[in-house]
From TrEMBL:
InterPro entries: Bact_Sigma-Reg, PPM-type-like_dom_sf, PPM-type_phosphatase-like_dom
Ranges for region Disordered: 331-355
Protein origin, superkingdom: Bacteria
SMART domains according to UniProt: PP2C_SIG (SM00331)
Protein name, UniProt field: PPM-type phosphatase domain-containing protein
Leader sequence residues: none
Transmembrane stretches, start-end: 41-60
Record field: compositional bias (Low complexity): 331-344
Keywords: Hydrolase, Membrane, Transmembrane, Transmembrane helix
Any matching Pfam family: SpoIIE
Domain PPM-type phosphatase: 90-328
Phylogenetic classification of the source organism: Bacteria, Bacillati, Actinomycetota, Actinomycetes, Kitasatosporales
């Protein structure tokens, strides 16, 4: 659990209002002018009390803004520890990530991502916790902690997902006991009872084969040359939380990520972001235009998408947004590797100008 402890008021914070109050009281009862009933005396008295009141208000405002800045700094630090920036390259896979929070007060979100090199391949997780802010950050910490261990320990991707499911259930039980200690569990209308998480697990093998397990999360987009297409059209499983995982659980093969190709993982806040006229953010078109320039790197794609998204929403997205861009930097580019055997992705969107 993440706690932000309130600091005790400093000497300056308590002495200054006391001094201003003493000045007002001293003027009222000690100044002869304050005892007079003339118009001029009343005007002067009103001006004195107005100045004292304005000073108190400005002092309180300054104190609150300082405490808010401290709270935001603590929240950002906590999120950077939990949702640590990924390294620029993981076992031959270039990585770039960004996260935008809809909670302006706390500056933290409920999205999670991680890419880890293991003996089983590069394993990647992208998830979206219901809600945002500090309440969702605890769930993010529980899931990422479980993934970082299970990704190395479990030889099969389905067992990694089951570890995440158990970690989420355990975290929700502990949260329920903390929020409803008298009942020993969540009330029917409590937020904990409605908690769920969408999760996408990917495994990229040494030969570029991509295997996936998807629990209610949007499928990533493949960027190959100047074309963009979804990684898969399979129906995902239900999100983690409300329903148990099926007894038979097998990772699906999604073809191969050839050298030079990119995968863009994202949370639904990206595609569901609306502009002032209610139009959704055209993520596939933005990605298609991002790959028209050369050279194409995860950083350039990420900057293009984030810039277009902030422009589309005027800098204030309605939901948390996380983006994770992966590029196969092993061996030659896509053209030289096009003759390699293996399943191929089917691009759906070609580059075209935004309108």
């Amino acid at each position: 659990m993440i706690r932000i402890k309130a600091r005790a008021p400093t000497g300056r914070a308590t002495v200054l209002p006391a001094v201003w109050g003493a000045v007002a009281v001293g003027y009222k009862f000690g100044c002869p002018l304050a005892q007079q009933n003339g118009l001029g005396a009343r005007i002067v008295t009103s001006a004195v009390f107005f100045a004292v009141g304005t000073g108190l208000i400005l002092h309180v405002r300054h104190t609150l803004l300082r405490e808010l800045r401290i709270a935001r700094k603590v929240a950002r630090t906590a999120q950077n520890v939990v949702l640590r920036p990924p390294p620029p390259r993981v076992d031959g896979i270039d990585v770039a990530a960004a996260q935008l929070s809809a909670d302006r007060g706390a500056s933290v979100g409920g999205d999670l991502y991680e890419a880890i090199a293991t003996e089983h391949g590069v394993r990647v997780v992208m998830g979206d916790v219901r809600g945002h802010g500090l309440a969702a950050l605890g769930t993010v910490a529980a899931l990422l902690g479980s993934f970082r261990e299970a990704a190395h320990d479990e030889p099969a991707l389905d067992r990694v997902l089951r570890r995440l499911d158990r970690a989420l259930a355990r975290h929700l039980r502990e949260r329920a006991r903390a929020e409803h200690p008298a009942h020993g569990g969540p009330e029917p209308d409590a937020p904990v009872a409605e908690e769920f998480v969408t999760v996408l697990l990917l495994e990229i093998g040494p030969d570029g084969e991509v295997r996936a397990l998807n629990c209610g999360h949007p499928w990533p987009y493949l960027l190959s040359g100047t074309t963009v297409g979804p990684l898969s059209h399979l129906d995902p499983l239900p999100p983690l939380g409300p329903f148990p995982l099926p007894a038979e659980l097998t990772a699906r093969s999604c073809g191969r990520l050839l050298p030079g190709e990119l995968l863009v993982l994202f949370t639904d806040g990206a595609e569901e972001a609306r502009d002032a006229r209610g139009r959704f953010f055209p993520l596939p078109k933005v990605l298609a235009n991002a790959v028209r320039g050369q050279p194409v790197t995860p950083q350039t794609v990420l900057r293009t998408v984030v810039s277009a998204l902030l422009d589309h929403t005027r800098g204030t997205p309605d939901d948390d947004v996380a983006l994770l861009v992966l590029r196969n930097a092993r061996g030659p580019g896509p053209r030289a590797a096009a003759t390699e055997p293996g399943a191929r992705f089917t691009p759906r969107v070609k580059a075209e100008p935004l309108r």
